[in-house]
Request: fold
Amino acid sequence: MRHQIRVEVNGKSHEREVEARQLLVHFLRDELRLTGTNVGCETSLCGACTVWMDGKAVKSCTQLAVQADGCSVTTIEGMKQGDTFHPVQEAFWECHGLQCGYCTPGMIMAAGALLKENPSPSEAEIRQSLKGNLCRCTGYQNIVKAIAHAAQGGAQ
Amino acid sequence: MFPAKFTYHRAASVQQALELLAAHDDAKLLAGGHSLIPMMKLRLAQPPAVIDIGRIAELSGISRDDGSIRIGALTCHADLAASELLRQECPLIAEAAATVADPQVRNKGTIGGNIAHADPASDLPAPLVACDATIHLLTADGSREVVASDFFVGLLTTALGEKEVITHLSVPAQTIGTGSAYLKVEHPASGYAVCGAAAAVTVREDGTCAAAALCFNGITDSALNARAVAGALVGSSLDDDAIDAAVDGHLTADDPLGDVYASGEYRLHLAKVQGKRALKLARDRARG
Ligand SMILES: Cc1cc2nc3c(=O)[nH]c(=O)nc-3n(C[C@H](O)[C@H](O)[C@H](O)COP(=O)(O)OP(=O)(O)OC[C@H]3O[C@@H](n4cnc5c(N)ncnc54)[C@H](O)[C@@H]3O)c2cc1C
Ligand code: FES
Ligand code: FES
Reply:
């Protein structure tokens, strides 16, 4: 059984027919070809697949595409406004908040969600907010620095 | 990794969810999906039909209802943790919800799904038992209420019937002179509770104990209610020695859970240490 869904992704409305069991991350990557959102663990632990659903950070490997019907989704591709990178993207660049880059889209979506709710987090709050995002390269130091830098307006 | 095939049905109301449950045998309700979808991806669950209740507005939200607080089954952990009303009236629930996994999981996982799934390592069961919460269930034939201490039956097993929906929970508002605390030792990889201690104490004006509750997640196959510890504390001075003696003398667990990460013996040790700390913190909060 297939289902007609309409999802607004990065401000653009998409209508597709999907299988009930299709995961949101596969809908984004395979149907819409938005491959910035990565699949890491597939078991809800690593956060590489983090996107915003109606403004809240969620793990898109643990949502069905049909659950996103009628919702607004933001992926890493939607963070740049025109030619201007999101302050968190800019800060990851300036503070070298990545090495291989695999975790980075999820990190940026998680960090962006944090700063929307708490524009000036403490270092402890930044670290807490990344509990659902794993990085196997950086040791997190520069990721934390980048988010603090973005929060201080360093990357505006 | 993706689930086996199933038919998907979205319920617009509780009534419709009950009708869909009646029409589809072995169907599973889908709330936030953060226990069900992982199980379906691993093919540990292969329901032929999934009934999405995730958008039923009447199942969501936290409100005051006479002397108690009403929590809709679909309320997510992030909303529980952020609720000013809960922080004032049932702070134990908000404190426990704030320790669930990570922000992404808290944005999706719901209190109804959490208790229906009844993972022994999840964070809400013990606080709900300690607060004397009541769980409200609905079937096509009518509604019934189950107190939290009767709801959690065993490993991933509850009093919930196959064709039943949890509509809401009610938790008595905390009385004056009561303090509570939830302390968690979490599994470093999964974030689930290896030991989660939920304590609540009510102090009299002279500082002695009028009522106490101490419950644990992660120690036994369903929330462990340390009634004997609570019994030993009532009437006591609640000073550190009294708390230590009550926990050391009365905390026992039949068949504590054990795995590669933490043996049963170690979990029981954690429960003693965390139980004492939680009771002392609850007492300090009660005394203000
Ligand atoms: C990576 C990860 C880490 C986690 N860590 C923790 C943790 O540290 N602590 C913790 O407590 N939890 C943890 N969880 C679980 C999470 O808290 C979810 O709350 C919980 O899994 C279930 O809520 P849900 O809304 O997602 O339920 P679903 O997955 O949608 O449903 C779970 C079960 O409940 C049933 N159900 C759902 N709603 C109802 C209802 N209203 N009436 C009757 N039956 C219903 C479903 O049919 C299903 O059987 C974690 C989950 C993940 C993925
Ligand atoms: S791929 Fe979704 S959390 Fe790892
Ligand atoms: S930069 Fe490689 S996993 Fe984070």
